[in-house]
TrEMBL record:
Organism: Fragilariopsis cylindrus CCMP1102
Subcellular location, record wording: Membrane
GO cellular component, one term: membrane
Membrane topology, record value: Multi-pass membrane protein
Protein name as annotated: PRA1 family protein
Any Pfam family: PRA1
C-alpha cells in the first residue's frame, strides 16, 4: 500500500551509508553475474521485492517527475485550469441562474450544446497539450523506477 508510513528514508532508498553521504558499494549491483536459465527468475524476483518494499518511494518519485514536467509546460497548466474552470461554470449554470447584461447565461446555450462543446474542447486540450508531457512522465519515472528496482540489492536494505 502507498501510505506515508511506508515511505522509506532517503538514505535507505539511495543506499547511502555513513556520515559521508556516499553510496554504499553493496547497495547497487547487478542481479546476475552471468546469463543462464535462472536469469529471468532472478530479475523478476528482485523487481517484485523492490516494488513491494519501495512502492511509496516510487509513487513519490512519479509525483515529483509529474510536478517538474507540469512546471516545464505552463501552457498545459493554464489550459487545464481554464478547462476546469469552464466545467465548473457549466456545473454552476445547470443548477443556478446567472444574469449577465439582462440575460440568463444558462439559457443562451443549452446544456447539451455546452456539454458537447466542453467535451470536444477537453479532448482537444488533452491531445494537443497534455499527451506529450504525460508520456514524458511515464517514460522518465518508469525508467528510473525499473533501473532502481533492478539494481538495488534487497539483501542489503
Amino acid at each position: 500500500r502507498v501510505t506515508l508510513d511506508t515511505v522509506r528514508p532517503l538514505n535507505m532508498f539511495l543506499g547511502i551509508s555513513g556520515p559521508s553521504f556516499c553510496f554504499s558499494p553493496t547497495a547497487f549491483n547487478a542481479p546476475v553475474k552471468k546469463l543462464d536459465k535462472s536469469t529471468y527468475e532472478k530479475f523478476q524476483s528482485r523487481l517484485k521485492l523492490n516494488f513491494a518494499f519501495f512502492l511509496s518511494n516510487y509513487a513519490l518519485l512519479t509525483v515529483g517527475v509529474a510536478l517538474v514536467t507540469a512546471l516545464m509546460h505552463p501552457g498545459m497548466v493554464f489550459l487545464v485550469g481554464l478547462i476546469w474552470g469552464l466545467w465548473g461554470l457549466h456545473a454552476f449554470l445547470i443548477s443556478n441562474e446567472l444574469i449577465l447584461f439582462g440575460r440568463n447565461l444558462g439559457t443562451v446555450i443549452s446544456i447539451s450544446h455546452r456539454s458537447t462543446a466542453l467535451t470536444i474542447l477537453t479532448v482537444f486540450v488533452i491531445l494537443w497539450k497534455c499527451l506529450k508531457p504525460s508520456i514524458t512522465v511515464v517514460i522518465i519515472s518508469g525508467l528510473i523506477i525499473v533501473v532502481h528496482a533492478l539494481f538495488r540489492d534487497p539483501s542489503h536494505v
